[in-house]
Amino acid sequence: MSRSDSSVKKRLRPSKSGLAAVAVVALLLGATSVFNAASSPTSAAAANQNGSEMKADAVTSLPVSFEVENVNRSKVACASDGATYTVRGHIVGPTKELRRERVKGATLYLHGLSFGEFFWDFAQAQNYDFATNQAKAGQVSVVIDRLGYVSSDKPEGNSVCVGSQADIAHQIVLDLRAGSYNVTPSGQAPEFSRVVLAGHSYGGQIAQVAAYSFGDIDGLIVIGYADRVQSQVLKDNAAYAAKVCASGGLRVGGAGPAGYAPFGAPEGAAAALFNSADPAVQSAALQLLTIDPCGDTASFAPAVAVDLVNVPSIEVPVLIIAGGSDALFPVPAGPDQASLFTGAASVDQVTLPNFAHAVTLEHAYEPSALRPLNDWLQKRFHK
User: Fold this and answer.
1) Nearest-10 Cα torsion for 67, 162, 362, 290
2) CA 93, CA 128: separation in Å to the nearest integer?
3) Could you tell me the CA-to-CA distances from 320 to 63, 129, 268 in Å, in that order?
4) Cross-strand pairs, 221
5) Rounded distance between C-alpha atoms, residue 327 and residue 270, angstroms
């Protein structure tokens, strides 16, 4: 498969408005109940398949796949194998929007270490499916398993890194704009006029690298990540992964590709990720956590120095979301990260009180929990 960056469509670039004031949003959330999830990986309800009149909040989830090259043309130097792989996920949005050949916009969400697509479409508890809740609010979300995770292809773990993950995100952005990806079963792939890139934790770092390396997105959202404010817990987890990787790492599923490792000792995962989450949600999520490619965990720290030089060059609007009880990126991680984006058209920052690192699974999550994110998208990209 060959690609050319000359195919990137001209980016819509808003005028600069300076650094926005830092906002701290207090959220009052109700309790939710846990239920047994269906075995299907499609957590959003497919609506109106028989052609009857659609409900106002009808949501469709389209299984999609992207053919990508594991190459690294980013500004972060790290090794990749250059092979072609398939990245899988879903596009979740209002049914009436996804029936169109050309859609106004979508947000591509990248998960962090230990997670997968399930971070964004968690189906094991009521109201925790972030992508479906966003769809009900009128937003289109593209949620994927990054290369090396869950349903996507798995290279040898040392042959993927933050730079190649950023390049793959760039390739997927181009595919979304052009409608050049696979949709099951219809085959009809909507084209998206605007694409916002969002990432959680290590996915946030990947999103930043993609933003300053390729410049082909319309907005950037960084959730639960900071370059300069990182806890000892995070450093200990990275050291644990490095030790496992140094011995050759683990094989996926016991017999698959080698070079993978947990990000931290499994017995410490709950304390690292949660603060006020329902115990049943914690239990369900912990069972879904996965091992990470060693190249991902090894390239995490070295990329920080590159970030600090290049993040100021990002010009699109930026939203930073932080957890007020994040054990990995503690307060003041959010405001500090926001201060780095000196060249952005606008910068908004939200700190969620009592939320730990796994923000979509925290504090009895309800559709209103990440409303600041939806409001930000609505204000800037859906006028």
Assistant:
1) 70
2) 16
3) 29, 21, 26
4) 198, 319
5) 10
264's enclosing H/E stretch is: none
pLDDT beneath 70, residues of the chain: 1-57, 363-369, 382-383
Query: CA distances (Å), 93 to each of 129, 217, 270, 289, 334, in order?
Result: 12, 19, 31, 25, 28
| Integer Cα distance of 247 and 274 in angstroms | 29
Residue 349 one-letter amino acid: Q
What is the token pair recorded at 167? 């390049």
Entry pTM: 0.86
- CB burial string 285-304: b at 16+ within 10 A, e below: beeebbbbbbbbbbbbeebe
pLDDT of residue 371: 84
6-21 burial: b if 16+ Cβ within 10 Å, else e: eeeeeeeeeeeeebbe
Residue corresponding to tokens 């060959």: 2
Measure the CA–CA gap between 37 and 18, rounded to whole angstroms: 45
Q: What is the pLDDT of residues 330-368, one digit of tens each?
A: 999 999 999 999 999 999 999 998 899 999 998 655 556
Strand duo 59-69 + 182-183: pairing: antiparallel
Separation CA 145–CA 86 (nearest Å): 10
